[in-house]
Amino acid sequence: MLLQIFQHLLKRSNINPALVEDICVGNVNETGVPYKARAASLAAGFPNTTSVYSTNRFCSSGLVAIHNIANQIVAGSIDIGIAAGIEMMSINVDKQGATFSEVITALNQDAADCQMVMGQTSENVGHDFNVMREKQDRYAAESFQRAERAQKAGLFDEEIVPIITKWKDPKTGEEKEVTVTRDDGIRYGTTYEALSKIRPAFTQWGDKSTGGNSSQVTDGAAAVLLMKRSTAEKLGQPILAKFVGAAVAGLAPRSVHLHRTPLIST
To answer: What predicted TM-score, i.e. pTM, was given to this entire model?
Structure first.
């Protein structure tokens, strides 16, 4: 999937791959990412002078990649770079949580809380901030409905490229090649009434998070070509967005994982 993303980026931008100095790939669960990302870049047509590395900050790994490459450009370390993100949840299931030495967990409650899985922290957030099940279901329904309208209107078409992959029929086991051209996690016709009937997913910790109002588990990849405005104008590259800045803030591990949000104007 990353190979195809790189190929589409080169085709769409028509950039000389030799001008790209560094590629940062955000990923959480894949093993051997630096090797695979490097191989994918070379197979896509980037020369061996283009360096590649990976980064991981859980859900915001792809955003961290953007921040890292942007900072390198601002600092003058590179002129042109690519920030990417990829996750193959279908073959790399997130085991969630970790187990630490009792020496660590005994010293600090926050350290011990780092062993919590995301389903547990989700319920903690709902409890700590008084976010009721109904509010989550109503927001989820509205989110699905907005996404459905946007997809049907073609608002995502320009930012999505076709990906060729293999699909196995769950009933027959037959495997065939398919081309994915749109996000398939958007559930058409989703309503609050339907979501409210779904059983809670983590009853050992609470009753608010369900398979209907939580994030989907899916595969996906994306890439962004970054450079200074002056460089883009010199190369005749269209300017689609401007990186403004980014910041990091930490919270108690029992409540939420760390996230980073870059400010991008379009």
So the answer is: 0.90
38: alpha, beta or left? (left if phi > 0; alpha if psi -120 to 50): alpha
Question: Tell me, what DSSP letter sits at residue 157?
Answer: G
Q: What is the CA radius of gyration of the chain?
A: 21
pLDDT tens-place string over residues 144-195? 999 999 999 999 999 999 999 998 898 999 999 999 999 989 999 999 999 9
Got the DSSP string for 158-181?
A: GG---EEEEEE-TTT--EEEEEE-
Q: And the tokens for 84?
A: 């990417």
Q: Name which of 227, 224, 240 is nearest 62 in CA terms.
A: 224
d(CA 58, CA 36): 19
Measured in degrees and rounded to the nearest 5, phi and psi for residue 262 equal: -80, 145
Q: What whole-number distance in Å separates Cα of residue 177 and Cα of residue 91?
A: 17
For residue 132 the two structure tokens come to 């009721």
In terms of DSSP H, where are the helices of 51-90? 61-75
Domains of the chain and CATH, by start? 1-94+217-266 (3.40.47.10), 118-215 (no CATH)
As beta bridge partners, residue 163 has 180
Residues 227 and 73: beta-carbon distance below 8 Å: yes
Rounded Cα–Cα distance for residues 24 and 18 (Å):
16
